[in-house]
Amino acid sequence: MTALVKIRSERDRMSAIERRIADFILENAHLLRDYSSQQLADALDISQSSVVKFCQKLGFKGYPDLKLAISEAVIRADNGDGTVAKPARKPLSSTQGYKLWVRKSEAEEATRLINPPGILTQTAEMIGRAGTVFIIGLGEDDLHARALALRLAQLGILTVHNFDAAHMTASLSAARADDVLLVFSEHGMQPALCQLARHMRSQRGKVVTVTRHSSNALRALADLALLVSAHDEHPHIEPLLYHSALQHLLDRVLIRLYEADGGRRSRLQENQERIQPLLES
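Structure tokens predicted for MurR/RpiR family transcriptional regulator:
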């Protein structure tokens, strides 16, 4: 994990001052070699000790080590040896699209690093064992909830999808032990979703949450928490990064479900053959 990816992946768990330092470094990585720790502190109007503590919290001995690691990451990226490969030729007209692709790739990389393969395997196994998988997301979060419900159904996994908390509360009254409630909430702060998670736990069911990589009320109620790391200073870009990284994360879970059971593979093929004529008619 490069220093820049590490900073992005940890940003949601940082304090306000730490996020200011992180954002400055991410936005000015190429210039950081010219900054001393005191100059960085002065630029942000914070104490030098705050900069040192920030570095140590990330696992570096101090600011010089962090600056060196970031310089190496910048050089690798410029040489095409970073986590995102650069194409040999890039037309000027595609610059904006290329930058978006790079940012999405970085968000997917950071999200991959904070969700170890073991967590994804446990999530897939928990879903695979469930008698019923209850899925909910409110607002934009429902886009991924709805899509995942369809994918699971195509694998032959019984799903109950809802975008209304009251209706889902009624549905959960039929939940049994080892059933799964999968809750999508970018910021994890909706009281209604937290109430659903508590309800599911009282039914002895399992709770899987999908949120940003931050400390939030919903994540605290999860048996397993899937986390997304996606940041950009532009408000119209950050949602695109979040949805891209989240979709990549869910795809990794779905692949595990598909590959773990031959019966699911057969059901997927059968369902696709049934659905295709409906789409063509």
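The chain has a mean pLDDT of 88.
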